[in-house]
Amino acid sequence: MSDEVLGVPPVLVLVAVQDLVNLASCIRVAKNFGIDTIRLVAPECPVDFYRIEGVAHNTADVLERMTVHETLDEAFADLTYVHGLTGRERTAKRTVLRPRPAAADLAARSGVGRVGILAGREDHGLSNEELDRCDALVTISANPEYNSLNLAQSVAVYCHEVWVARGGDALPFKPPRHAADPASHEQLEALFGSWEASLHEIEFLKTRQPDLVMRTFREIIFRANPDSREASLLRAIGLEIGHFLRRKGVLPRR
Which of 48, 49, 116, 216 is deepest in the core (most CB within 10 A)? Predict the structure, then answer.
């Protein structure tokens, strides 16, 4: 996604990742939500690109840009503002935000400098010393009786919020592969005529009031607002009822 649309994305910094599958999942999530720069700090699992791509398909472009650093200072060197993901309560007074307002804050600050998201260490999360390096902390609300999120899950939740804050939801849906013109009234009247004839042929209208049934049927179709291709398909279904009955000998052939 171009920077002109969503602005410069944050950098995802992962500390002491211990499991390759978790690493691959974080890389996949990053690409899902427009983050193209990942920095690893002292990873504790092998950084095997082949195995990572086996989990995070089509992420070779992100992997090519991914860098490995020995220290957090090295990974943070050019960043002007960083959010740290943590689920632990802090005794010291710190700025702690929920993901949605935090994402809005991060997106706003990305306009004046390179911002980052820090996460890591599956077993114990980020250390106090690592959290001390962050400008603010982000805690994802969860069931108090079971609030420990997997690393990739927490990264996914927050990266999605940042994606939305950067304008991701404003991007248009992909248009239909085969767009069709609106159905004309001529097509719709042919559709109604075919269905009415078929409903008579299967004696659906024998004990009902045809005008009322067809009026309701019209309203259903009008609310559906079919395009020309869809209207043609619906008419073909109605016509096929009679054709089928004739092929089976239920009705005389025309």
Answer: 116
